[in-house]
Amino acid sequence: MIAAILLVTSLVASAVTIFRAPQVSPIDEISHIDYVWRVMHGELPHRGDELTDFALNQWACRGQENVGDSLPACGTTDRAEFDIITENYNAWQPPLFFAVVGMMTRVGMMLTSFDAVVLMRLACAVIFAVGLVCLYAIMRRWGVPAAVAFGCCALLFGMSAFALTSSTVSTDAPFLLVGVGAAWVLKREARDEKHGWHIALLVGLLSALVKTIACAAVLVVAVVLGVTGLYRLLRHRADGWRCGFTALGAVVGVGIGTLTWNAYTSAHTPAGWQNPVLGVNTVVLESGELPFLHWLATGTSVFGWSGFWEPAQTVTYLGSFTQGIAALLLTAAPFMAVLVLSGPERKLGWVGLLGPFMVVMFVEVQEWLRENAYFATVFPRYGLSLVALTALCLAVALRNRSRTTQALTALGGTLIAVLSVLDAMGMGALSVS
To answer: Which ranges constitute the DSSP H helices of 63-145?
Structure first.
């Protein structure tokens, strides 16, 4: 029953936003729409490919808030009329997410009269909602009471990332599913005390085929388990091998998926191709300059998961309130877990606490080695796969609290859910477009 409430609430809020906010999200949505459209027609995009006529027409007709007059009149597909990059610069992304959304869109086109982009967005709404239900299920598997699990899951409706990930065509839509997979791997070590290397390998592989940065949650869990395994082995404990093999399984899974897809994209990259968005979000280092001091400035960027883009139609006083509450509790959650939990379960708290720092390092080191550049701002969306683990930290930390605390947690979650639906409807608007 509670899972059904979470599912329906999520789908209602997402659908309201989808139909109220037709404009294209500036967070790469047009490149995602193009990718899905290509997959639906039996092809994969490659670096250097221009956006399809379908994507260009959708872009021109729907508009985009931050590009001003760069888009031509609706119905235009002549690239010369677009005063903006028309290459699909996300063609290198792995295909699993796009294939799933494309399949769901095809089914939707057979059953309804909605246009393809609306159906793509609804597919992402379904993916988010299913991830939320899975998060509730994993919380229950960790022994969290139903009331607390509901409240902690409903808290995520208040995140500023909710509209982006559940109402646009976004590769961040599966972030809860990836995080739940990582939590499943961790649970087998922290509670069941069973070998989990094969689960870790599968979760790592699927994460790598969804989105490269989505592997963050799996890799953070692998690092924590690897360190735990080493510590146990140094103390001559045989169970250290179990942790070590689980960590290795996660890394191998990520490695297989990432290296295989990178080999494919490299083989299909035109000679001399240059990234058209290089330097847009990064700063190239001077000759001989090291990035370490720059990294310090971004070390805490991911904490709180706030400041995401959302459509103007859902910018409200209600939304600002729920976003503040969500950011506060999600920041505090891993600290609570480290202090409250004990024994093997404390690893969950360390994953939630160290994860945001490690995501920043993953992103910065990769950019340094690949482009000799650094991110002046590491966007919180790069760490979204950690949100499920962070919410789980909060739930497990509250697991053994009094019945009054549990009831208040459920009541707070209900309030967040109701306010989020009203926010999607535009009540208490700060601005209206």
So the answer is: 96-111, 116-141
Give the tens place of pLDDT for each residue, 217-228. 999 999 999 999
| pTM for this prediction | 0.94
Residue-wise pLDDT for 140-175, tens only, equals 999 999 999 999 999 999 998 999 999 999 999 999
Joined together, the tokens standing for residue 6 give: 């979470």
**Strand ranges inside 203-359, DSSP E:** 282-284
CA dist., res. 299 & res. 354, Å (int) = 11
Return the sign of the alpha-carbon dihedral for residues 207, 212, 213, 216.
positive
- In the block, tokens 């839509």 appear at 173
Query: 278-285 long-range contacts, Cβ below 8 Å, gap at least 24?
Result: 278/371, 278/373, 279/373, 281/375, 281/377, 281/379, 282/367, 282/371, 282/373, 282/374, 282/375, 282/376, 283/373, 283/374, 283/375, 283/376, 284/371, 284/372, 284/373, 285/368, 285/372, 285/373, 285/374
How far from the centroid of its chain's Cα atoms is residue 401's Cα?
30
**380: which residues sit within 8 A by CB, 6+ positions away?**
161, 301, 302, 303, 304, 305, 306, 307, 308
Q: What is the CB neighbour count within 10 angstroms for residue 123?
A: 23
Q: Are 330 and 394 in contact (CB under 8 A)?
A: yes
The model's pLDDT over 165-203, given as tens digits with 9 standing for 90+, comes to: 999 999 999 999 999 999 999 988 776 556 678 999 999
